Amino acid sequence: MSGKVSQAANLLASAWRSNTRLVSLPPSAQPTTLDEAHAIQDETARLLGETIRGWKAGVTRPLRGGVLASRLLPSPARLSAAHMHRRLVEGEVAFVLDSALPARDREYTRDEVAAAVSACVAIEVVDSRFEDQAAQPELDRVADLFGNSALVYGPPLRAWRDLPLATVHVSLTIDGKTIVDRNGGHGSGDPLNACVLLVNALRTAGGIARGTIVTTGTYTGAPVMAVGSTAVMTIEGLGSAQVTFTP
Length: 247
Prior knowledge:
Oligomer: single chain
Shape: globular
Number of strands: 14
Helix content: 10-25%
Number of helices: 5
Order of helices and strands: HHEEEEEEHEHEEEHEEEE
CATH class: Alpha Beta
Distance between the termini: 39 Å
CATH architecture: Alpha-Beta Complex
Strand order of the largest sheet: 2-1-12-5-7-8-3
Radius of gyration: 17 Å
Structural class: alpha+beta
């Protein structure tokens, strides 16, 4: 492990533990490659005594953010707002690996990935260990678990493949008020695209284990939640997920 990776991970892990925010990473700790950013994630999780149980996938590029085991929650979930600086919610489709996709030389096809996963509704909770996330270089944001704070997921559905995920009806409500109500809206059209990208990015890094969950990007934007509020994401034919932010 490089000194850069160790320094950045220690700073980020300390910010997690103390519930404080960083202005930025010092130049000596800033990743300069995607591999370094991902290594910082891995070391941050280790320092926190956590395991990574899921991944936030880049929508059109093979970026990823680890989802910590303690922050992967079945719906309905309650999250303490006291340990969060921002409470942005993204309504998404997530995929759960029903069978492992191990390391191998050739790429996995879309059909192979589709056959290996169940689908579910998810709400990604976005937060940052930086005071101003948008002002940070992209690789620094990736190092910070790609902005992931938690992932709430509904019941996985094995028989999802006939759902038109590119055009499916989605809705997001906050405290009963409709925020989003439309067909489709995923950034790549079809969320399975992001899952395939992630699987193939991990194909040369040990593969991806059975039971791993992969969330694939928002259909709904990222509205900010107030303390005490409840968000419900619903996808026609797939179900719903719910999260409440407690004081």
